[in-house]
Amino acid sequence: MKKSLLSLAVVALFAFPASAQPGPGVTPAPQVKPTDAPRRGGPGFGPGVGSETPATPAPAAAKPAAPAVYDESADAKADVAAALAKAKKEKKRVLVTLGANWCGWCRKLDGLFTKDEKIAPALAKSYVPVKVDVGRMTKNLDLAASWGVDPKKGVPLLVVIDEKGNAVKVPSTETLESGKGYDTAKVLAFLETYAGH
């Protein structure tokens, strides 16, 4: 009889888990949450037993997309024609930058041209700047070819156009680089050299 009572008790434990409602007069067993369990592990050991800490760190929040530097829907020929008309009136040269929004070096050069406290004024003094988007080397290639340059060899590309509308032969932007960026002194020297004064 003792054996059958013990068997009945074991069956009852498995048949009626702690989450089931107990009968009248029976005190329910306390529920242990994973966060109540003692933490084990620690830095470098992963999550503790019973811990709700994930085994891998949560992914970093995605960075917002950087604003476009090149207008991908612009009419490059019209933009260059307008820049040439303005440059002629102001007795300046046009500085065309061929590049694309996906190009890190294009973004760095644009940052210098628009935000650097020495370069931005030097550019504005002698040039009318215009940016021409080349997309994934599929856009405005005919315009680039008319100036004797090929964006497929690398961007950004600079083209200086004189007061007569002719492209002036200029060196590659690689000559303006230094380490992981552009050398401010080299960029200033470039702008001064090709200003046409």
Structure characterization notes:
This protein is an alpha+beta fold and 197 residues long. It has a domain at 76-193: Glutaredoxin (3-Layer(aba) Sandwich). It is built from six helices and six strands; from the N terminus they run H-H-E-H-H-E-H-E-E-E-E-H. Strands 2-1-3-4 form a four-stranded mixed β-sheet. The longest helix is centred in the middle third of the chain and has 15 residues, at 76-90.
Number of strands: 6
Low-confidence stretches: 4-14, 34-51
Largest sheet: 4 strands, mixed
Side-by-side strand order of the widest sheet: 2-1-3-4
The coarse silhouette is globular
CATH architecture of one domain: 3-Layer(aba) Sandwich
Give keywords.
four-stranded mixed sheet, 197 residues, single chain, 6 strands, alpha+beta, Glutaredoxin, 13% strand, two-stranded antiparallel ribbon
Architecture blueprint of SSEs:
Blueprint: H1 2-15, H2 76-90, E1 93-99, H3 104-115, H4 119-126, E2 127-133, H5 141-146, E3 157-161, E4 167-168, E5 177-178, E6 181-182, H6 184-193
Parallel strand pairs: 1-2
Antiparallel strand pairs: 1-3, 3-4, 5-6
Give a brief outline of the structure.
The chain is of the alpha+beta class and 197 residues long. The chain has helices at 2-15, 76-90, 104-115, 119-126, 141-146, 184-193, and strands spanning 93-99, 127-133, 157-161, 167-168, 177-178, 181-182.
